Amino acid sequence: MSEPTVREQAVGLLRAGVPNAEVARRLGVPPGTVAWWKHRENARRGELPGRKRSTCPHCHGDPLDTAAYCHLLGLYLGDGHILHPPRQRAPHLTVTCDDRWPGVMDSVERAMRRVLPNNSPCRVRREGCHDVKVYSTHLVCHFPQHGPGRKHERRIVLEPWQQAAVDAHPWELLRGLLHSDGCRITNWATRTVGGTVRRHEYPRWFFTNTSADIRRIFTDTLDAVGVEWRASAPRPRGQVNVSVARRASVALVDAHVGPKW
Q1: Of 1, 34, 79, 119, which has the fewest CB atoms closer than 10 Å, so is most exposed?
Q2: Mean pLDDT, residues 139-161 taken together
Q3: pTM above the 0.90 mark?
Q4: What DSSP string describes 95-155?
Q5: Phi-psi region of 202 (alpha: psi -120 to 50; beta: other; left: phi over 0)
Q6: Per-residue pLDDT at 88
Q7: DSSP code for 94
Q8: Is residue 52 within 8 Å of 118, Cβ to Cβ?
Q9: Which of 53, 10, 49 is nearest to 32 (CA)?
């Protein structure tokens, strides 16, 4: 019988569980060659892992974590966008997060992982912020509001299945919207009491967005959970502030949304 070739020896060692580097050392061949032989042998045996498909409740009937989805929907409507460059196989959802709020950045990544469990988010460093991205061929299924142009230049209306999810998890949507396009500040005013000028401080939540449709989604959800709000006059660029200033309403938002951190 003829002696086994170097490749056959390598395959035998690999099948016995010997690590690639050790096989390369014993046989005196480059590690890359051993890795290629292992790949070809696995392919011949039909043992390659294969690519996981992206989950989609609409195309494949996969389960959807609706609470995480509502949070991600709020983040998308606030600071998110979907792009599909011509040379890329799949579109990506990007949510831009300020580096001052690492907790918000972590929550964005968690929501992406729960909504798209077979896809891996990544973070791209930019000046003063990070883009948290996730790639999936089914992003438009999850976010049918996507379309050409900026969000405030097109109609934004929730689909019935999205509205049902928001009705079940309104605070998750509000948390996504407020942690992207919102802030909590301490306002103050002065008044004279008995000849003495006194300063009065009180907390307030703001949500600022140019899209009237997105603001309507926000305020309709506030109404649904019993939060009182007021809207300011439009700014020169069309932005409108929605303010939550009543003490009971601020306390309600604080309890369910929590601070940006």
Answers
A1: 1
A2: 92
A3: no
A4: EEEETT-HHHHHHHHHHHHHHSTTS--EEEEETTEEEEEEE-TTHHHH-TT--SS-GGGS-
A5: beta
A6: 84
A7: E
A8: yes
A9: 10
Give me the sign of the Cα torsion angle 212, 105, 249, 67.
positive
Asked whether the CA dihedral 89, 90, 96, 100 is positive or negative, the reply is negative
* Cα 220–Cα 97–Cα 201 angle in degrees, nearest 5: 60
In eight-state DSSP terms, residue 212 is: H
Q: pLDDT tens across 36-82, in order?
A: 999 888 888 877 776 678 899 999 999 999 999 999 999 999 999 99
The structure tokens 């506030």 sit at: 222
Rounded to whole angstroms, how far apart are CA atoms 91 and 28?
44
Are 119 and 91 in contact, with CB atoms under 8 Å apart? Answer: no
Which residues fall within 8 angstroms of residue 99, CB to CB, at 6 or more apart? 105, 128, 129, 130
Of 178-192, 211-225, 240-254, which range is least confident? 178-192
Strands 196-209 and 182-193, bridge-based pairing? antiparallel
Average pLDDT over residues 128-141: 95
